[in-house]
């Protein structure tokens, strides 16, 4: 019961905001967080794309075990892990039900397991990489590999404002509840209450969108007053901003170790298939 209570505390709006902040800023002391962003992008380029073209069970299982270890090293929030597991289970369950309704049987389980394994590997690779970089480091890394300045800044700005937007949305939702009239009867399976809360959830987005527009305009004016456009278009300013980024022996060891592990997996998969 104590574990359930702690989990429910994290599911609250305040708990979600804290988990988002921890995900964005609380993993700076991990091994992966000390790597150069370009190293993480290069590593993710393989583990985020290659699983789609791999059909060998041994390879997928080995990659799954590696990504499970890197996810643990990244100190990913348990809330994100729970959301990931729920998404994968619902995806696999939905596909299995659809295949069963259209005449599929037990032979569809193995392909579904392969698909779930691929999605798990790609999802954990994404979580590992993007939870190991704070918004500033992620923005600088994208800027360094040639992503347009507006895109890299937009990603960093979205990371920073997301917790406050969640809290503001919660306040708007509560204000709608305070001024609205809840159904006097819940109805069968609480359908009246469910419809009521869904309606409020949709209506709460409109004031939030207006608030985001006003906040964005204020932010743009403040940035322009501080020379944002000049700094982002100046090669010298860009060089100074990204001067801290460099490859180290840690990056080489990480890439070399991952590459050797993948090669060993291919050798093992080839021997087992024989």
UniProtKB/TrEMBL annotation:
Its main location: membrane. The keyword tRNA-binding does not apply. The chain crosses the membrane at residues 41-67, 79-103, 115-133, 194-213, 252-270. Pfam families: CbiQ (PF02361). It is a multi-pass membrane protein. Keywords: Membrane, Transmembrane, Transmembrane helix. The keyword Transmembrane applies. It is found in: Membrane. This is Cobalt ABC transporter permease.
């Amino acid at each position: 019961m104590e574990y359930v209570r702690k989990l429910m505390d994290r599911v609250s709006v305040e708990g979600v905001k804290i988990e988002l902040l921890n995900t964005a800023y609380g993993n700076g002391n991990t091994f992966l967080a000390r790597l150069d962003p370009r190293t993480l992008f290069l590593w993710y380029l393989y583990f985020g794309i290659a699983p789609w073209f791999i059909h060998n069970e041994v390879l997928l299982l080995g990659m799954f075990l590696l990504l499970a270890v890197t996810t643990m090293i990244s100190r990913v929030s348990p809330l994100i892990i729970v959301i990931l597991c729920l998404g994968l289970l619902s995806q696999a369950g939905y596909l299995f039900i659809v295949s069963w309704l259209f005449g599929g049987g037990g032979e569809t389980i193995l392909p579904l397991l392969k698909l779930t394994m691929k999605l798990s590997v790609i999802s954990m690779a994404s979580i590992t990489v993007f939870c190991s970089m704070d918004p500033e480091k992620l923005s600088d890394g994208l800027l360094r590999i040639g992503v347009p300045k507006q895109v890299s800044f937009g990603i960093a700005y979205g990371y920073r404002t997301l917790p406050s937007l969640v809290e503001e949305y919660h306040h708007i939702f509560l204000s709608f509840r305070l001024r609205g009239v809840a159904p006097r009867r819940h109805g069968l399976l609480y359908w009246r209450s469910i419809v009521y809360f869904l309606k409020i959830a949709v209506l709460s987005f409109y004031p939030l969108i207006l608030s985001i527009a006003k906040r964005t305009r204020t932010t743009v004016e403040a940035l322009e007053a501080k020379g944002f456009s000049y700094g982002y278009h100046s090669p010298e300013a860009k060089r100074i901003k990204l001067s801290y980024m460099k490859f180290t022996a840690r990056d080489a060891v990480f890439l070399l170790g991952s590459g050797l592990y993948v090669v060993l997996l291919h050798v093992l998969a080839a021997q087992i298939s024989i």
